[in-house]
């Protein structure tokens, strides 16, 4: 996103999405982060800052965007020092302009400085993901397509990054390999042993072993795979790296017999054309795997205690 990007207001709250994070995994992430960043405390602040000095700090937006990680920022500050006061001035999922104050922190200066980098790292990344997601969602507006993330997340941070996608108005794909069946090209290659004529038979046999609540999705990369996959009664068919014209043909061929997902070559230049083909879902790895941290800063004023 450039500094002059215009982002429409995010509709996440309007459609009733649950913008809440479970406390336990967030605390675990923060504890690991602080163990990495300050395993024996902050020796710089201990050397330079009086123990009784207090600080007021403002989380300031230097570019426009969509906020995500408000409570993570607060929890990071208060995990270091429960006595730190954090006033959240915007909620998760809200749009902001450059110069907006997002939160205000007051507490012991040493505590604020120790927590600063971990808190900023997380809220900058989460807000970048929310902002990027909002751009994709805006470009798909007026179509039936839902923008979703993928499993291309930072190891250990998936719960935060998936939350940020929701803050940007997007939706989440399966959370992990344990949640749903998604047979991709390598699965099909091993399954069929190079004999595509057996595809329907093998998928039917696999589906018969599933519980009725488990979602079954299959990826295809050629038009001639669509009918054999549909014949197995899958829930979703993923059309991978299809051109927009091929996607239109694929949607017509599926004709409502399964949900249609588009994947591959999805970026801000292509997503509107993909959405216009009539697909139900567009999965976008770029929501999480290539974002750059949003430029947010913590501006601190110190006052001797």
Q: How would you characterize this protein structure?
A:
- The protein is an alpha/beta fold and 305 residues long.
- It folds into 2 domains: 121 residues, Alpha-Beta Complex (Aldehyde Oxidoreductase, domain 3), CATH 3.90.1170; 151 residues, TIM Barrel (Alpha-Beta Barrel), CATH 3.20.20.70.
- The chain is 38% helix and 18% strand.
- It has 11 helices and 12 strands.
- It has a 6-stranded parallel sheet. It has a 4-stranded antiparallel sheet with strand order 3-5-1-12, covered by helices on one side. A two-stranded antiparallel sheet has the order 2-4.
- Helix 8 links the parallel strand 8 and strand 9.
- It is elongated and about 75 Å long.
Write a brief structural summary.
The chain contains eleven helices and twelve strands. It is an alpha/beta fold.
Strand order of the largest sheet: 6-11-10-9-8-7
Number of strands: 12
Number of helices, counting only DSSP H or I runs of 4 residues or more: 11
CATH overall fold name of the largest domain: TIM Barrel
Structural class: alpha/beta
Task: Identify the CATH architecture of the largest domain.
Answer: Alpha-Beta Barrel
- The ordered string of helix (H) and strand (E) elements is HHEEHEEEHEHEHHEHEHEHEHE
- Spell out the CATH superfamily of the largest domain: Aldolase class I
- Main sheet attributes: strand count, strand direction, barrel closure: 6 strands, parallel
Determine the mean pLDDT.
Answer: 93
Keywords: Glycosyltransferase, Pyridine nucleotide biosynthesis, Transferase
Subunit structure: Hexamer formed by 3 homodimers.
Protein name: Nicotinate-nucleotide pyrophosphorylase [carboxylating]
EC number: 2.4.2.19
